[in-house]
């Protein structure tokens, strides 16, 4: 009888240990980058300047999507999509310095060698958030797909960067 209760307790303890180790394993796994989920590597260049990005894919920390007035039409209901990117602290300082120096120039959002969006520098960007108007007046479905892919990619790029830094 004593052996049965000992086996029962041992079984319970092993079950609890298995449960906790499974939870630990899966929670650690969710904080690892998945290269297959990095489908886009956004970079920012200055138009008509050296082909070196001032912001690369590891500098972005977040992206949001919204609409703005389409300045190319008189129709007040005609809106176009824009992406607002948040940058890490170091890159926010770089962006501030570059936008102070380059008033009137255009920042280009390039993904896979293609112009995806632009931002005409009118004043210094001091808050680490830069908005890009999407090129080619993308339809809603395409803009949302781009936003979802960028969100997923930026998340995994940040995880990849943390893994590389140790």
List the helices and strands and how they pair.
Blueprint lengths: L1 H28 L13 E4 L13 E10 L9 E9 L1 H13 L4 E6 L2 E7 L8 E6 L5 H26 L1
Antiparallel strand pairs: 1-4, 2-3, 3-6, 4-5, 5-6
Q: Can you walk through the features of this model?
A:
This protein has about 170 residues and is an alpha+beta fold. The chain folds into two domains: about 1-30; about 40-165, Gyrase A, domain 2 (2-Layer Sandwich). The chain is built from three helices and six strands, in the order αβββαβββα. Strands 1-4-5-6-3-2 form a six-stranded antiparallel sheet. A hairpin with an 8-residue loop joins strand 5 and strand 6 (about 130-135). The protein is globular. The relative contact order is 0.18. The mean pLDDT is about 85.
Which terms would index this structure?
166 residues, alpha+beta, 2 domains, 6-stranded antiparallel sheet, 25% strand
Short note summarizing the structure:
The protein has helices spanning 2-29, 89-101, 140-165; strands at 43-46, 60-69, 79-87, 106-111, 114-120, 129-134. The protein is an alpha+beta fold. 17% of the residues are buried.
């Amino acid at each position: 009888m004593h052996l049965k209760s000992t086996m029962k307790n041992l079984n319970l303890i092993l079950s609890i240990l298995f449960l906790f180790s499974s939870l630990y394993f899966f929670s650690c796994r969710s904080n690892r980058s998945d290269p297959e989920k990095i489908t886009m590597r956004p970079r920012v260049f200055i138009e008509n300047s050296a082909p070196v990005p001032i912001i690369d894919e590891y500098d972005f920390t977040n992206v949001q999507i919204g609409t703005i007035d389409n300045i190319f039409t008189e129709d007040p209901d005609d809106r176009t999509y824009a992406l607002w990117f948040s940058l890490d602290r170091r890159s926010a300082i770089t962006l501030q310095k570059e936008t102070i120096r380059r008033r009137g120039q255009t920042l280009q959002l390039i993904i896979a060698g293609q112009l995806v969006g632009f931002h005409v520098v009118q004043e210094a960007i001091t808050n680490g958030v830069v908005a890009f108007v999407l090129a080619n007046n993308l339809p809603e479905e395409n803009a949302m797909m781009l936003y979802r892919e960028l969100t997923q990619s930026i998340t995994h790029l940040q995880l990849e960067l943390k893994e590389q830094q140790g």
